[in-house]
Amino acid sequence: MTAFRKFRLLGLAGLLVGLLMGCTVGPNYKTPEVAVPAGWTEPSSSGGLPADSKWWQAFGDSTLDKLVHDATAQNLDVAQALDRLGEARANLGATRAGLFPSVDASASWTASRGLSNNVADNSTNATTVSSSSSTSATNSTTSSLGLDASWELDLWGKTRRSVEAYKADTEAAEADLRSARLSVLGDVAKAYIDLRTAQARLEVGDGAVARYRDTLALTQARSRAGLVGETDVFKARGSLAGAEANLPSLRSAAAEARHKLAVLMARPPAELDGWLNVRQAMPRFQGQIDAGIPADLLRRRPDVVKAERKLAAATARIGVAQANLLPAITLTGNIGASQTNIGGVSVGVPGTWSIGPSISLPIFNAGKLNAQTDAAVAQTNQAAGAYRAAVLTALQDVENGFANYRADRQKVDRLAGAVSDYANALRLAKDLYARGLTSFLDVLEAEQSLYSNQDSLVSAKGQVLKDIVAIFKALGGGW
């Protein structure tokens, strides 16, 4: 065979391998279309604070800003999500290595010692033969050095599909990290609001206790003057005790919120008590929220992005399973040298080499590979359903968030009016009671109604703030 024909055959073989390696089995991924509305039903604000901003700064609370900063840097859930991302990136790097040949070096050296017999014949006459023997030790050494290479040709795109899958897994891990940070943001903000709400309720409770004490003093004075009976004193004392009984549970609620904030920052539960135990006014949100359009959620909500990337990874693994049904070709090669020294005499092979392909083809596996392909398809269908569910859940969260916000704002307005009316009623009732123009029941009812509505007003204001946090979390912003 002439050199030209050899060169032409090598070229044709290389072209054939190149064409085969350009073939990739399995479906090509395309982001599924999910029907989303053009606009929102509940959200109506526009031109406000975008969800992607540092929305917690709109509360104008430096303590909250510090808590958010420390929690996102130290939170253990975020740290675990960061480690999962590192693992996903490492898996991607290991899979990409399969696109290239692998080369291993080998070396060996052995020494041995053996015994050999030396025989000498001595003849004294023609009919008598005597022999004598001697034993000697022989040392030998053997050494070898070689390089082994192997490369599985990616004929059907199995490795490329695996890289595609692990790349999508890495992007899903990145979205998971953003989701963990977003969750921490929301948890910190809500726990902080719970803390300030409990402290504000304690302020209201302390004020109610002071009023009940004033009323008790008034009834005791009127009782000593013989203007009212002991019944009014007992009722006033009982009302004071009831108001005081509410305070321990509020202190406990404030302590729970402080402890939760400490854990979110990876600190012992009571470590922040000294700092956060100082009462501070509830934060106030200034501005409006720009909800954008529903389609924004598909790129902004980390959980939606994660679900979509998981779907992409599952789709790619269908191709991996299908490629296992087809022939596999592996190129192997070896270069080496060896030397043996026996009794000072060296025998060696200066260099050897070998190269050649090996082909494997699955013939019978009792349906295992087909079942694996079916499983990959089923997993992809599951991932597709999970993605659609994530989109619908995201839309629901936004609609619910704005609906709750609107309802709780209306509740705050109504309660504020009720507090004002009951404060006036209590003032008039006390004045009339002091002059003996009304019964103590009117005073007691006004006091109880005022305290109840004041406490409900503070709780409603805290809920409105948490509604705002829920909206920003639903919109996927701030991470």
Helices and strands in order:
Blueprint: H1 3-21, E1 49-50, H2 62-74, H3 76-96, E2 102-123, E3 129-152, H4 158-224, H5 230-245, H6 247-264, H7 273-276, E4 289-290, H8 297-300, H9 302-323, E5 328-342, E6 345-360, H10 368-434, H11 440-474
Parallel strand pairs: 1-4
Antiparallel strand pairs: 2-3, 3-5, 5-6
Form type: elongated
Q: Roughly what percent helix?
A: 55-70%
Give a quick account of the main beta sheet: strands, pairing sense, barrel closure: 4 strands, antiparallel
Examine the secondary-structure arrangement and name the CATH architecture of the largest domain: Up-down Bundle
Query: How many strand segments?
Result: 6
Strand order of the largest sheet: 2-3-5-6
Any low-confidence stretches, pLDDT <50, length ≥5? 3-16, 123-131
CATH structural fold name of the largest domain: Outer membrane efflux proteins (OEP)
Tell me what you see in this structure.
- With 479 residues, the chain is an alpha+beta fold.
- The chain folds into 2 domains: 19-100 and 155-325 and 367-474, Outer membrane efflux proteins (OEP); 103-113 and 134-153 and 327-361, Single Sheet (Outer membrane efflux proteins (OEP)).
- It is 60% helix and 17% strand.
- It has 11 helices and 6 strands.
- The chain has a 4-stranded antiparallel β-sheet with strand order 2-3-5-6, with no helix packed on it. Strands 1-4 form a two-stranded parallel sheet.
- α3 (76-96) packs antiparallel against α4, α4 packs antiparallel against α9 and α9 (302-323) runs antiparallel to α10.
- It starts with a helix and ends in a 5-residue tail after the last helix.
- Mean pLDDT is 87; it is low at 3-16 and 123-131.
